[in-house]
Amino acid sequence: MRNRDSSRSGGGSIGAYLLHRAKPHLPPWLGVAGVGIAGSGAHLMWAESAAAGVGLTLSAVALTGATWWAGRETSAQRRLHSAITVAAGSAWVTGAALAGPLSGILPDTYLMGGAVLALSWNIRMALRTSDGAAPESADKGLLAKVGLAKARIGRTEVEPNRVTASLALEGGEQTNDDVARALVRIASALDLPQSAVRYQPSADSARRGELVIVPRDMLSEAQEYDGPSLPGGSIADPLVIGQYDDGSPLVVWLPGDPDAGRNANHFLVAGGTGSGKGDAALNLQTEILSRRDVIMWLSDPKAYQDFRPLLPAYDWAVEGGAGTEAMVEALQHVIPARTGWLGKHSYRQWSVQAAQTQTDPAHSCRPDRTACGCPGMPYMVAWMEEAANTLRALGDDAFTGIAQEARSAGCSLIVSLQRPSYDQMSTSTRASLPAVIALGCDPRDEAFSLPESVIDQGAHPGAWGNRKPGYCYVVAGGIDPERYASPGRTKQFTPRAVSVMETLAQWAVRNGATADPITVAAARAVVGNAYTGRQDHTDEMEHTTVPEQDDETLTGQALDPEDAAMDPEAELPTVEQGDTAPGLFGTEPGRKPNPKEARELFARALDEFEQAGQMVVGPKDFMDWCEQNGLSRPWVSERLRDAAAEGRLQPTSKTGRWRIVPALTPA
For the chain: N or C, fewer Cβ within 10 A? Predict the structure, then answer.
């Protein structure tokens, strides 16, 4: 009894197991049976109806098309398999309805074709994974890992060292922000650096964009600087400062171009210590100075540590302090003067033609519109190196007005500093410098260097720090926005580049542009002799000799003219009122000047500052002078205010600092 029960139980278990395994394979066969029943029933109803034949044919076409459309989210193989199955089944039903299921080849087609289609689906099901789920493609598996399982990858372009894939997210559930947050996980899944994966969202959709993957870092080996890209070219031509990670050149523009829809660029060069900011500056400066129609002003508080080989090429260079104050004051007056010249010559913005002699009647300043022949106006670049020092001295909005007005004057402002935070420069100045070369920095400073939208696309200079000198992101007019999040690297300046820079500087002296009369006049009207124009900055000490004493010196014939009338044999003058007696502790006797003499001394001091080229002064500059002449700092402050009232001085944007009005310039 027990044996019979166990035998029955065993047989039931085997049958149940076989039925369980067969169930997933039954639907295709049930579908074949359903097609046969549908074709036989349709023949009984519409065998003699021509209209029914037309309707069945159209229905078959429509059903096949609907199947193809519905399979757009599946794999290409499943979509094609489904469409063929539906087309074959609907065609047989149409034939059976019109001619009869047993007519002609319809029975054979049904038995053989139906079995083949059903078996093809059984085989497809058997090739699935053991858990019954269809295997995912590598793309879908990757997206599922990073939380974007419902996203679909569309058209993919494969270039050398660059893969670009269009991405469509699930409507109503996912946005482009989800992709931005997932970029670091995608890089992790692909075992790539974070900068190798970026996302360019579509401007027309919140759930579509392009995923860009650069599998090999072509920037790992530094390129050594070997000279400018286009010596003798125009500043309007692109400036090549390095290359992108896919090997394409990294270029920027300074002047605007209305035909290209590009405005003139002001640049912020930002990067922490060791990020390669100096090399980035040299790449850009050597490109600028190698062009024939541009002049450059440079302020460098580091005493030209990086730029000394280029000194002869600058139109004006200062080391910081009062010199930088004078340069900023000069810029504030030069810019409107240049804008006025361009306007009078019918230039809406600077162009290459503006740098040439004005022989075109369309750009004449004469009322009769005949060619005026005025000298051209070269483009101008004002470079403020280590600008944090200047901003601390002049205020965090020192460059705001310059940046806002310089574009229309054919002038670009370039500000270089380590940390462009809001405590270093005002938000107005930062907004006026939209173009940026962002090198490695502290991760917390990324938002100060790059727009948030570029960071969302995958740009993270904080990931480099000072470990990858020269790596940078460049955001500027003229560059495809899709490139903003693409890392580049500037060329490296080694000791071998010094001779190239010196040669370039001498070329600029001989062949480069010189400042136009408008710029020169405006600068000298403001700062006088402080504006030097281009000079040869070679070491003058090599050509300086100490004269030996001769008979003229010994006989007094070569004395200072002020001392020529003195009689060395005459008695010293007697003590006058106001003279001080010798001090008890060895202090030198002297005489405190009376008010009239003091004012004359002060006027002479202003003349001496002007002759020395220091055109911005304040009480602190008179400290030694006060000590020598027995005058107090409050007295000097009062005299500065008097001189301002008389027109000899003008206040600057910095409280307590005054600009000397050149003596020959009307107040």
Answer: N
Measured distance CA(424)–CA(420) in Å, rounded: 6
| 617 token code pair | 């002064």
Q: What is the CATH number of domain 138-213?
A: 3.30.1360
- Determine the 3-state secondary structure of 494 from DSSP: coil
**DSSP symbol at 224:** B
| Residue 494 pLDDT | 92
Question: What SS3 string covers 30-47?
Answer: HHHHHHHHHHHHHHHHHC
Q: How far apart are CA 341 and CA 504, in angstroms?
A: 30
* The two structure tokens encoding residue 53: 């034949």
**Which residues 6+ apart lie within 8 Å of 64 measured at CB?**
83, 86, 87, 90
pLDDT, tens digit (0-9, with 9 covering 90-100), for 326-335: 898 889 889 9
- The DSSP code sequence of 295-349 is EEEEE-TTTTTTTGGGGGG-SEEE-STHHHHHHHHHHHHHHHHHHHHHHHTT-SS
Cα→Cα distances 349→263, 339, 367, Å = 9, 9, 21
CATH top class, domain 239-527: alpha beta
pLDDT tens digit sequence for 605-658: 777 777 666 777 777 777 777 777 777 777 777 778 777 777 778 777 666 777
CA distance 611 to 609: 6
Beta strands of 227-300 (E only): which ranges?
239-244, 249-252, 267-270, 294-299
Distance CA 486, CA 195 (A): 8
Name every residue whose Cβ is closer than 8 Å to that of residue 551 and which is 6 or more positions away in sequence: none
pLDDT of residue 584: 33
Q: Which positions of the chain have pLDDT values less than 70?
A: 1-12, 17, 73, 128-141, 396, 535-593, 611-613, 653-655, 663-667
